[in-house]
Amino acid sequence: MMPENCLFCKIVRGEIPAVKLYEDDEVVAFRDIAPQAPLHVLVIPKKHLEGPAAVAVEDEQVVGRMMRVGNEIAVREGFPQYRTVCNNGAQAGQTVFHLHMHIIGGRSMNWPPG
Ligand code: AMP
Predict the structure, then answer these.
(1) How far is the CA of 60 from the centre of ligand 1 (A)?
(2) Which atom of ligand 1 has the smallest separation from the CA of 85?
(3) Mean pLDDT of 76-98
(4) N or C: less crowded end of the chain, CB within 10 Å?
(5) CB proximity list for 98: less than 8 A, separation 6 or greater
(6) pLDDT band, very low/low/confident/very high, at 114 (cuts 50, 70, 90)
(7) Residues designated as active site
């Protein structure tokens, strides 16, 4: 998947709409279009990385920022208890091949996940 055709790169570039909750020079956070809980936000790097397996040493800092930003949004939205999910590969449930961290909260969660 090239960045030109990537759905989340298009959101980063503002070519398709999203309800953005946060943006800085490295990350963007926006509401999931099909929320699975009262809080369902996606935090992504602006840099196109296909998924967790594509994270290189040079990307470690932005992944930490994704987690910090996700926590700040969850607290701000009133859901300080939440689950983070990063799917890696289709078998794990990844459908968009641009690294993203789900922030899901506002309801009880089951373990193990399905
Ligand atoms: P995953 O299955 O982990 O790859 O998650 C992809 C997520 O992206 C799903 O939860 C989708 O609902 C969400 N999604 C797909 N298209 C959009 C969009 N245009 N805006 C916001 N979220 C989207």
Answers:
(1) 23
(2) 3
(3) 98
(4) C
(5) 1, 6, 7, 8, 9, 44, 48, 49, 50, 51
(6) confident
(7) 100
Spell out the domain ranges in the chain. 7-105
Please indicate whether residue 95, judged by its CB atom, sits closer than 6 Å to ligand 1. Answer: yes
* Residue 113: both structure tokens together: 């996940």
| Residue 56, amino acid | A
Mean per-residue pLDDT of the chain: 97
Residues 20, 32: Cα–Cα separation, whole Å: 10
Instruction: Please state the pTM of the whole predicted model.
Output: 0.98
So what's the architecture of 7-105 in CATH? 2-Layer Sandwich (3.30)
Average pLDDT over residues 49-67: 98
